[in-house]
Amino acid sequence: MKASPKKRPSFEPESTFRLTEPPNTNWRYGDSYMGSLGAEDWAKDEEQGWKTFDTSQMTPREIYPLMISGIIPRPIAFVSSLSPAGVPNLAPFSYFSMVSHHPPLVSISFLHPRHKEKDTSENIRATKAFTVNIISEPFVANANFTSIDAPADVDEWIGSGLTKEPSTIVKSPRVKESAFSMECELYHLHDLCPPGSSEVTGTLILGHIRMLHVRKAVLSEKGIVKANNLRPVSRLGGKMYGRLGDAFELPRLSWEKEKDVVNELQKKP
Ligand SMILES: Cc1cc2nc3c(=O)[nH]c(=O)nc-3n(C[C@H](O)[C@H](O)[C@H](O)COP(=O)(O)O)c2cc1C
Question: Coiled-coil regions in this chain (predicted)?
Fold first, then answer.
């Protein structure tokens, strides 16, 4: 594996997560964003205008770098599955999201470049079960290795240096090094075709989370996962991964409490 270019600063092993104030502590309903810290640069950039892309006039190869660099940061599902013959498979997927907590569902989508389905989606289609593991900073290189385009009969676990931990309900193991793992059963599968075409170019799956395994060290007394202990990595554009930086809180607003002020604003010309 190639080392990162020398001119870059070394990885900082301390957690980079901290809570700060929000960019604008004085914002009131109807105000523009100009009172925010950083607003002037943002407004200046607006003067350059927009470039608009019509996806119907673009190839998938042109759309891909724009979408993966603009829709960031993406969480990563580190998926362990088994082939019908029992061959273990492990690979990362960042077209991944939480869909619902009632029922507890996650979504993952797989692209089939060159008409070859990903081993992971083939396995899930056949066995209807898998685990999703959250990747933390210390083992991101191990996880990245598993995206290797190995043939279906190769067990990526071996080269990854990661440890299989038996699951409790599904047959595919979870990643022992992960602090947050989900045992999932297939809830829904939908093959994706470009509009007006019957060519299957990808597969979207929804997984029903049956079991959640959380390392005690990342769990607060209130039953919340502590971000600075989980230290999750995200996917950015190109080959870039991201880590958590500063976070801030903003209030959740209640119509009952705020309606008089908001209604008053509606009356203004
Ligand atoms: C961080 C990361 C995220 C990825 N996300 C996706 C994704 O969302 N969908 C996809 O089809 N491939 C994605 N890939 C590529 C797959 O991991 C890669 O094709 C892998 O070989 C699939 O393994 P499999 O055929 O054993 O399932 C990603 C790769 C990396 C490194």
Answer: none
